[in-house]
Amino acid sequence: MANMLFDEEWTEWLPIYTWLIEHEEGLILVDTGETSRVHERGYHPVWHPFYRRAVRFSVHPDEEIGPQLRALGVSARDVRQVVLTHLHTDHAGGLIHLTRSNVWVSQAELARANGWGGRVQGYLPHRWPKWFEPDFIRFDSGPFGPFSQSMSLTRRGDVIVVPTPGHTPSHVSVIVRGSPSFFLAGDTSYNQELLLEGKVDGVSPNEEVSRQTLSRIRALATQQPVVYLPCHDPGSQERLAYSEAILPLAEMQNS
Known about the structure:
Elements lengths: L1 H5 L12 E3 L5 E4 L18 H5 L11 H7 L7 E5 L5 H4 L9 E4 L1 H7 L1 H6 L14 E2 L14 E2 L6 E5 L8 E5 L4 E6 L5 H6 L9 H17 L2 E5 L5 H6 L7 H6 L1
Parallel strand pairs: 2-3, 3-4, 4-5, 9-10
Antiparallel strand pairs: 1-2, 6-7, 7-8, 8-9
């Protein structure tokens, strides 16, 4: 955490990806991206060291989720379900566009993010839309691969939510099952390389929990082809376009 706050080096600009799943039962959106309001004076708390020293945003109005959906020929009203991997502002900032969607979030994540306690931890609950009353994720669909719990978003069970604690204690990810499967990872790691190396980010409150989650994702990739898509990885777009699956660790070591 200290390194994150006091290191003077910055990355290049990184994407904030959201994922739209076209399904016969209706459109499913994973995360909502950020709002261009981040550039308004006072939108971020000036007293918070994270927003003062560790993060910068560049989001234009046409890059918000509403205009981005319209550019695809999709109305935000047509989105049936929204899954929030967690409630950090760059994943929940676009909620204002999804007024008619069924929004899923972890109950424990919502409790952690609410009120002044949430603000101290970097959440912006006072920026959520007034109508925001999400449904709580219920892990009642049994295990999936290395994950002991899951929740199906579809009757066919081909789009599921799995617990991936680490970046936040109640972080979740979405898996679109197929050959390959697509692992919509939120912030389980900032890129695929960090996943493969088992490196934990500077935000995760419990390093061991994060490592266990990364290990489960890698284990899943040894059981079936998995395309890994974190929200801030510049390589996610290309891996999605070419259905480029994670190469199992054993094969990496032998190549």
